[in-house]
Write a structure and sequence with these properties.
Elements (H helix, E strand, L loop, with lengths): L5 E3 L2 E3 L3 E3 L8 H10 L3 E3 L7 H4 L6 E3 L5 H6 L2 E3 L8 H18 L4 E5 L6 H14 L3 E5 L3 H9 L2 H13 L4 E5 L6 H10 L4 E4 L4 E2 L2 E2 L4 E2 L6 E2 L7 H14 L4 E4 L5 H9 L4 E4 L1 H6 L2 H17 L18 H7 L12 E5 L9 H5 L5 E4 L2 E4 L9 H5 L5 E5 L5 E3 L10
Parallel strand pairs: 3-4, 3-16, 4-7, 7-8, 8-9, 9-10, 10-15, 15-16
Antiparallel strand pairs: 1-2, 5-6, 11-14, 12-13, 17-20, 18-19, 20-21
Helix pairs in contact: 1-4, 5-7, 10-12
Bound molecules: flavin mononucleotide (FMN).
Flavin mononucleotide binds next to helix 11.
């Protein structure tokens, strides 16, 4: 039996895949849709009292799929989505109680996302208490909005005050959602943890802009907007999650670029407690939540895991600072022809597509008499040809012993 349930700060989640703060959920009907989609918990769209933050430009969603297949595949889009536009009294009086009721009936936690003006502590406290009374089980303070991010860059002081005052007033767990550009990352997370947050949600997507070269104008709207990266955001967000978890013991909710079970598993293996998904649901539909969960379950069955805690963080222990690897490097200054490893071609697998020849700027690989040949003395032992070969026909081997150094997957031998 596989059990994918997760507990975080005393709150129980049926499975680890939540809908991330976005237009996916802002009222009762949208919460119902997410329940049907099989999410383990719901994070609402960010709400706020301040009218200046609620201004919604129209149109505001500009997918990039038309431009080329790479952008289509990566699910990238440019968005000017701002916090939810409805007034707070309506949100507090109708939307939240309705969502809370639906979530309670279906045993799914409701996490409400919000932010207020950075220095208006009274609003932060009042709104946090209001959401708690209206039925929220957890709060996600959105510190990733451009206003909050700007404030945090000036000083962490106001964020500490916000947390301290909510901690005094609130009876439900609350966490912080951060931007992937948040600096100083570790000082901030340490300070927030000391002041009482229960979790960190990492991350909101970075902002960007895309130019329609044919029309010679910005795509959709002439302004920098959010969520531009899509699936390629995963390694960037995950690296920062690793940075946090390597230095601070705090539950992290991993977000960014998750489209598949394998994507979600990367965050869990690195120690995330839960994951959240937004873009994939916009691009592939809400069926993506069940698909991700199923893929996690199939993987766990295959690996004979019966609960997430059995593998959570397993990979985190294996990740070390690159400086540590450099200290142990056996061939720090080797140049060709002294570099230690060379590619070995499996001619039974090689289809002579010459991808390796085109990619090797050291000119190690050449087509010679109908076969790919290796000029050993030019090789820098970099491994690019191994990873780039579409037929898995190249391995990196020790020049002297012939021992396999890297097969194109898993850890390379010197680092394992
Ligand atoms: C259209 C859209 C609207 C979003 N709105 C919010 C929001 O209101 N508050 C928030 O904290 N994050 C918001 N996000 C960010 C997501 O919650 C998530 O952090 C980010 O998109 C990275 O995850 P993903 O790659 O799964 O999309 C939004 C994302 C998208 C795509």
């Amino acid at each position: 039996m596989v059990d994918v349930a997760v507990e975080l700060a005393g709150v129980f989640f049926k499975n680890p895949v939540l809908s991330a703060a976005s237009e996916l959920v802002f009222d009762g009907p949208s919460a119902k849709k997410m329940v049907k989609a099989g999410v383990g918990g719901i994070v609402t769209k960010t709400f706020t009292t301040s009218p200046e933050f609620r201004i919604r430009l129209r149109p505001y969603q500009f997918p990039l799929a038309r431009f080329d297949s790479a952008l289509k595949k990566s699910g990238s889009f440019h968005s000017l989505a701002s916090p939810h536009v409805q007034k707070m009294n309506l949100v507090m009086g109708e939307n939240i109680p309705e969502m809370a009721h639906i979530c309670k009936d279906n045993k799914i936690p409701l996490i409400v996302s919000f932010y207020e003006r950075p220095h208006d502590l009274t609003s932060w406290k009042r709104v946090a208490k209001g959401f708690e009374r209206a039925g929220a089980e957890m709060l996600e303070l959105n510190f990733s909005s451009p206003t909050m991010k700007g404030e945090l860059e000036k000083s962490l002081g106001s964020s500490f005050k916000i947390i301290e005052s909510i901690e005094k007033f609130s009876h439900i767990p609350f966490g912080i959602k951060i931007s992937p550009m948040m600096e100083p990352l570790i000082d901030a997370v340490k300070g927030w943890k000391e002041r009482g947050i229960s979790f960190i949600t990492a991350h909101n997507a970075p902002s960007g802009i895309y130019i329609d070269v044919e029309a010679e104008v910005p795509h959709g709207a002439p302004a920098i907007g959010g969520y531009l990266i899509g699936r390629p955001f995963l390694p960037i967000s995950l690296a920062r999650v690793v940075q946090i978890l390597k230095t601070i013991e705090i539950p992290v909710v991993g977000v960014g670029g998750i489209f598949t079970g394998k994507d979600a598993l990367q965050y869990l293996l690195c120690g995330s407690s839960l994951v959240q998904v937004a873009t994939a649901a916009y691009i592939e539909g809400t069926g993506v939540f069940k698909k991700i969960n199923q893929e996690i379950i199939f993987w766990m069955r295959r690996k004979r895991y019966s609960s997430i805690s059995e593998f959570r963080g397993k990979v985190l222990q294996k990740i070390v600072p690159s400086a540590e690897l450099k200290m142990k490097e056996r061939f720090p200054y080797a140049l060709p022809p002294e570099s230690p490893y060379i590619p070995k071609i499996d001619h039974r697998r090689c289809i002579i597509c010459q991808t390796c020849c085109r990619s090797c700027f050291y000119e190690v690989l050449h087509l010679k008499k109908g076969k790919i040949g290796v000029e050993k003395d030019r090789c820098w032992s970099c491994g690019l040809c191994v990873g780039i070969c579409p037929e898995k026909a190249i391995t990196l081997v020790d020049k002297k012993t012939g021992k396999i150094i890297w097969k194109g997957h898993g850890l390379a031998l010197p680092f394992s």
